[in-house]
Each structure stands twice: as structure tokens, then as C-alpha cells.
Amino acid sequence: MHRLKALYFGTPDFSADFLKKVLDDKDILVKIDGVVTQNDKKVGRKQILTQSSVKKLAIKNSIEVYHDFSYKKFDLGLIFSFGRIIPKEEFKKFKYGIWVIHPSLLPKYRGASPIAQTLINGDTETGVTIIQADEGVDTGDILGQIITKIKPNENRNELTIRLTNLGYDLFKETTNSFVKNNFKINTIKQDNNNYSVSKKLEKENGFVAVNALQKSITSEGQKIYNLYKGLYPWPGIWTLVKIGSIEKRLKITEIELFDKKINIKKVQLDGKKEVDFKTFNSAYNIFT
User: Fold this and answer.
1) For the segment 76-122, what is each residue's pLDDT rounded down to a tens digit?
2) CA pair distance 175, 168, nearest whole angstrom
3) Distance between CA atoms of residues 276 and 288, nearest Å
């Protein structure tokens, strides 16, 4: 059976997890012959130049790595969290086009942060969509889609892992069917009159005023809890507190929802180690 010669576009950890599934699966009718990933970046306080997770995995498996669009022709392009727009002129290098694995129920939450936005908005279901890439951002025709319920306490990290696994199952099913069906597939147009967009996450997205945190402790806390789940582990939710005469950033590192109120379990003050919330509040008495 013919296997599609594919070029993989991806960068972060969960994209590498998806790639590893493709490489390890002997039954999928795809062969990854190259990867495109973002340039090495300086990471941490020591600013150590670090390869992306996708690049590390590709090198380990002796797969050619590109940081630009200097590659030649492939049967198929596959994108899962690449982080860059692919120029229109690149599409002609792929016999069957470029497929995008997108972790939302498109046309809902096009863009950079669909999983975070799903949780922040308190949705009860989500999914993965495979589309044929076009010139727009996540606007292409739908090749396949799978729906799943969101667990009540599921955070972004946990949901990302689950959607990566579901997305792989959908990709394998779609790809094998495509090859076995003489490289033909049915597509569905997206509803461009009924879509939403998710923006790239910034550190500022996690800011919650002290009075809003205080209110969520004593009354309705669902909105803050949804924000915490959607922004976990980065950028996380945080506030600004006065320690003496100095204003400092306080990160809320662990919370629970009980009886529609949030229960703050752990916090971390800038420059300090993570501590139990009760220990912190006993020392500074900020939350009453």
C-alpha cells in the first residue's frame, strides 16, 4: 500500500507528541520525510539556546529539519501547532495540499489558542478538526471532525494531551481512508458567517484584581475557575498585592472549585517559593 511522503510543521511539546505517534505507528499510510519548526530560542534565566521539541525528535529519528521554506516537493504537508503562517506560494509544493490539525470544533475558535478559549468560556464540549489549508487562518474546508465532552476539572494541559490523542486517531483514520479511496475525500465548507477567533496568549491575560479574587472566594467563583483552567500552566492567573510599601506579583498556582466558590490552595509571590495559601495569608493577611 502506498504511503504518503509528508512534511511535518510543528514546534511545541504536544506537537512533538503527535509526531512521535506518526513515527511509531507502522499501520498509518504516511511517512514523515522532513519537519519544519521554529528557530532555536534562548530559554530560562541563563538564556540557553534550545531546540524545539519537534526538532529534537526529528534529529533523534534522522529526519531532515528545516527552519525556513527551502524544502522541495512532498505528497502532503501536515501542520499541528507550527506558530507561523505558510506563504501561499508554498502550497504548490504539495501534491495533495497541506492538512491542518486544529484542536477545536471549527469554525469555532480559529487562531492561536483554541483550547484555552474553550475552557475560559466554560464550554462543555470541544474536539479536533482536520482542514485543507488555504490562504486564511484556519478557514479551509473540513476533512474530518471529532467531538468530545470536557471534564469538569480538566485544565488546559490535560485537555491538550487528550485532544492530541484524539486528533491523532482522527488523522490516521482520515489519511488511511484517503489513500485507500484513490486519494479522494469528501469535504465540508466552513460557515464563515458563524465563526469565532482565539488570540495568542499573553502574560497579561492572567491578571485578576484582588477584589475579584476575594469575591470568588466568598460567592460565585466559576468564571475565575474557568480562567485558571484555561491558562494553566502558562501564563497562569495572578494578581498584584502590597507587601509593605511594595507592589508584587502573586501567582495563584493551585485552586479548586467547591460549592461554586474557589478554594485557593497554593500561591507563589515573586522571588519566593510556592507555599500553601493559608501560610501566605497568615503572614500577610491580604485576603479576609
Assistant:
1) 999 999 989 999 999 999 999 999 999 999 999 999 999 999 999 99
2) 10
3) 16
The enclosing H or E element of 23 equals: helix 13-24
**Beta-strand relationship, 30-36 and 64-66:** parallel
Q: Closest by alpha carbon to 204, among 227, 233, 238? A: 238
What's the count of helices (H) and strands (E) in the chain, helices before strands?
A: 7, 15
Domains of the chain: 4-198 (3.40.50.170), 203-284 (3.10.25)
Residue in 101, 92, 95, 88 with CA at minimum distance from that of residue 8: 101
* Residue 225, CA distances (Å) to 56, 66, 82, 268 in order: 35, 40, 29, 17
C-alpha cell at 10: 510543528
Tens-digit pLDDT profile for residues 267-276: 999 989 999 9
Q: How far apart are CA 98 and CA 192, in angstroms?
A: 20
Question: Which residues, at least 6 apart from 57, have a Cβ–Cβ distance to it below 8 Å?
Answer: 16, 19, 20, 23
